[in-house]
Amino acid sequence: MNSAGYRYGASDQALYIPAILRHLEPQAFPRDAALIDTQARLMLNDDLIAAAARITHASLPHLFVALYIAGLALLCGAAARFGARVYRTRWAVAALLAALTLRHAIAKTGANTLEGYFHPRQVAFAFGILAAAAFLDRKDRSAILLLACAAAMHTTVAVWFSIWLGVAFWFGRPRARRLLTCLVAMIVVGLAVAVATGAAVGRFGRMDADWLAVIADKDYLFPLDWPVNVWVTNLVTVPIVLLCWRARIRMQRAIAGETPLVLGAMALVVIFFLSLPFNAMRTAIAVQLQIPRIFWILDFLATVYLVWWIVEGAAWGARDSAGARGVSNARGAAVAIALVVISVLRGAYACFVEFPDRKVFSIDIAHADWRDAMAWAQTTDPRSGWLADPMHAAIYGSSVRAAGHRDVLIERVKDRALAMYDRGIAMRVADRERALHAIAWDTPSGARALARRYDLNYVVTDRRLDLPVAHQSGTLFIYRIP
């Protein structure tokens, strides 16, 4: 409810659903395959989810809702396990779980602490927290395995967790330093070879003006352009973590492995600042890695420490351990209940006041007319090309690719985001943007002109056009473009 309800096909699923369909339907997306593969080839989650769909024979909407619930359960379990290592009372763990339901954006990163739809990034984050808990338990093999699971779900999330825990292993496991040094050396050599041979020229080169123009609206990619309030919002996590960590050390409440984890988190901050000059030079890899998302890990750690300070910090300063535990339990219960009440009220406001037309749970495409239109689209020739409002995914809640399983001229929000991974794709997006700027797509003559240029077959719109009607879904019309 804090995410304004569960939705299928929303936001980043404009990439993930087509990527999965590429495995399930060999003929899918003959025109847009290169665009989809620009990011999908960097991930394994589409392969894994497609395999799950084959094994279970479940439809993607039902499989996604099952994965969403499983992902939330995994995140809940990971946070509880991590909290149980840091806290001394169960009520503090309950308060942490309640605090984590207060979904919010990690400022200017394009990431949220919770999503209202299934996102592999959220599952990878849960695996990363489980890996951190395993590190605290000195279950090092389990930690490495969990990091591998995170990598299978989302590559860049796994990279940041690997750096966090890699530094923690360096400080917390002296015997592993030789192995870690060898691994880092191998990575550096591999990168050097890739640069020297030109294999990584698209990653380590600089983005030119034409490429940057396509992604100019993605301001979360460029930290030096952030306003002051965003810097404060993200960096305030650093003093929170450091002050609470020092307080726990003074009170002799720090646990084994905690200091290495804090040092690892600070290493992420150092990496962020070291990356800024390369981001300023618009080095492709420094932009594509979206390094500011390291603040998601800092946000989680700061939340863990804030809950500790409120529930246990002051109470455990007392001399009487039994009395301190009693105070902590009472305070923890009050904090947990208060956070649950706040979360429910906020979630109710989001679902019933801010977005009253949304269902709390929409297992399939929520917009009825769009759902019907896209169901009909799935019956057409897989090779057909489609034309729709460039912002159709934002208008109807899902893209033609995700809902209709068909190629579309452009889906502005996601296509611009994918353009940062490849200059060729960026130029394709720019070409189509220029065409749409010069030609009115939702007129008969404009649709025909675009169809001749890009070999399109159908246009979907809520306007009546002087074109042959192929299908009507409520206020939406699908026209054949002769």
Folded structure, characterized:
By secondary structure, this protein is mainly α. The protein has two domains: about 15-55 and about 365-480, no CATH class; about 65-355, no CATH class. It has 23 helices and seven strands. The strands form two sheets. It has a five-stranded mixed sheet. Strands 1-2 form a two-stranded antiparallel ribbon. Strand 6 (about 470-475) and strand 7 form a beta hairpin. Helix 6 runs antiparallel to helix 7. The two termini are about 45 Å apart. The mean pLDDT is about 90.
How are the secondary structure elements laid out?
Elements: H1 13-24, H2 33-40, H3 45-56, H4 60-86, H5 90-100, E1 105-106, E2 111-112, H6 120-136, H7 140-153, H8 155-172, H9 177-197, H10 201-204, H11 209-214, H12 228-235, H13 237-250, H14 258-280, H15 284-288, H16 294-313, H17 321-354, H18 368-377, E3 385-387, H19 392-396, H20 400-404, E4 407-408, H21 412-418, H22 423-438, H23 444-454, E5 458-461, E6 469-473, E7 476-480
Parallel strand pairs: 3-4, 3-5
Antiparallel strand pairs: 1-2, 5-7, 6-7
Helix pairs in contact: 1-2, 1-3, 4-5, 4-6, 5-16, 5-17, 6-7, 6-8, 7-8, 8-14, 13-14, 13-16, 14-16, 21-22
